[in-house]
Amino acid sequence: MKLVIKQLLDGSCRLGQLTELGRHTGRVIDVPGCLMYTRGASAPHLTQDMAKTIDKLPFGIQLTLPTLAENHEVIEDYKLGIGSFTSQQDSLLFLSVQDPGTTIPSGYNEKQFVSIWTTGGRMRLSTATFTTMLKNMKPDWFECLYDGDVVPGTASKKRIRKSVDRTLQYLDDCLEVQQNSPELKNIEVFGVIEGGDSHDERIRSAKETAKRPLSGFVLDGFQSDALATDVKQNLMMSVLKELPEDKPRLIHGCGRPDQVMQAVELGIDVFDSAFPYSVTESGCALVFPFSYNHQSNVDSAVLEQSTDQEKSNYVNDNKAGISRYEINLTNESYKSDFTPLLADCKCYSCQNHTKAYINHLLVTKELLARVLLMIHNFHHYFEFFETIRQSIRDDKFQQLKKIIMDST
Ligand SMILES: [Zn+2]
């Protein structure tokens, strides 16, 4: 895997492409970009045919190990790997150790094992178990095992140090197996950077990880809201300074539009798309505008096109802890709202259905509700990433950032 940087804004914000993607000759991934989040190797709630109809569907997909690990013996018997097993062989398959779409219980990692949580409960992964699963699944790209169980503000310095030490040990153990295994030799490997909220440990983790022969890096531990935005940004900046500029950087759990803009500005290249999934699970739809050719901010843009009742819902949703980028379709007032989820949206759901219908489906607990919301939320999110890239090309990144950040 190679990162080709085509444009650099303010010394850190990068526009480019990931190239030389192994068996996918001639294919590229545009960055900044996101991978498609999957559960059981499929887009949540959607058949593959439905997912393929979504505009700007990412070529890279994120396989989440906790949603696959229980079936690894079946995949071993199948022998051709997870891509063929799930008919996803045309995509670039990235395997993540944890599932960013769920909350991971704390306190279950041990010196030799990382815990993941499957539908059947806790599974303990040693380097040997993990690398055996990799050999059976045959992804194109994976991250090494890591101990990311350090809750900001709660984890002691000793625990943070231990998480960095263990993660480096897992990295060396995984690399040793990978380099001596014909099945794993050609798979791209990313190392994971830990360090919680400790500046020193973050730097140590980044410096040490950068010494290893890796295709790129993963920044973990930035998903918690317990870390203040400025602290997160300072930690992120310190880490990125220690990493080689010519290798890609992926971040976990940083999916809210304002967080994405801040991370892109600092030099993060790849994101996951668990955010639109969690919005869907809450019965919500993404409605934030990202057209940087007009001057309105999020609140005014959402409110301008809204009825009085919607304005009241929007304010109430914000009070209820729903992010400012979404509306909650379970709200009773949408019962007789016959407009699409978002005016001018070109997705299947908005072209064919109304808020009232989706409200009805949610109230009657029909599975179709989340199918329609997932289509819209993925469509909107993937368009957002395309717009980020275009804004860098147009030298309008700051205009777009202002629209996204000016929403409170
Ligand atoms: Zn839509």
Give me the CATH architecture of the largest domain, please: Alpha-Beta Barrel
Cα-to-Cα separation, first versus last residue:
39 Å
Number of helices: 15
Give the cofactors and ligands.
zinc ion
Shape annotation: globular
CATH superfamily of the largest domain: Queuine tRNA-ribosyltransferase-like
Query: Sheet with the most strands?
Result: 7 strands, parallel
What count of domains describes the coordinates?
2
What structural class do helix, strand and pairing data support? alpha/beta
* Content of β-strand: 15-25%
Task: Describe the 3D structure.
Helices cover 40% and strands 16% of the residues. By secondary structure, it is an alpha/beta fold. The longest helix is centred in the C-terminal third of the chain and has 26 residues, at 368-393. It is globular, with a radius of gyration of 21 Å. Residues 295-301 have low confidence and may be disordered. Bound molecules: zinc ion. Residues 341-342, 345, 347, 349-350, 376, 379 line the site of zinc ion. Zinc ion binds next to α12 and α14. This is Queuine tRNA-ribosyltransferase accessory subunit 2. Zn(2+) binds at residues 345, 347, 350, 376. Heterodimer of a catalytic subunit and an accessory subunit.
